[in-house]
Amino acid sequence: VHEILIPGRERVLIGRGLLDATALLGERDRLPGSVAVFTQPGAAPAARSLVRSLRREGAAAELRVLPDGEAAKDLAVAADCYRWLGDLGVGRDGLIVGVGGGSITDVAGFVASTWLRGVEVIHVPTTVLAAVDAAVGGKTGVDLDGKNLVGTFHSPSLVLIDVDIVEAAPPELRREGFAEALKCGLIADGELLRLLETEREAADLEEVVRRAVSVKAAVVTDDFREAGTRQILNYGHTIGHAVEAPGGFRHGPAVAIGMAAAGRVSALVCGFPDEVRQREAIEGLGLPTTAPGVDRAEVHRLIERDKKRRGAEVRMVLLEALGMPRVSTVDRATVDAALTAIGIA
Ligand SMILES: NC(=O)c1ccc[n+]([C@@H]2O[C@H](COP(=O)([O-])OP(=O)(O)OC[C@H]3O[C@@H](n4cnc5c(N)ncnc54)[C@H](O)[C@@H]3O)[C@@H](O)[C@H]2O)c1
Ligand SMILES: [Zn+2]
Question: How confident is the model over 143-166, as pLDDT tens digits?
Answer without folding.
Answer: 998 889 999 999 999 999 999 999
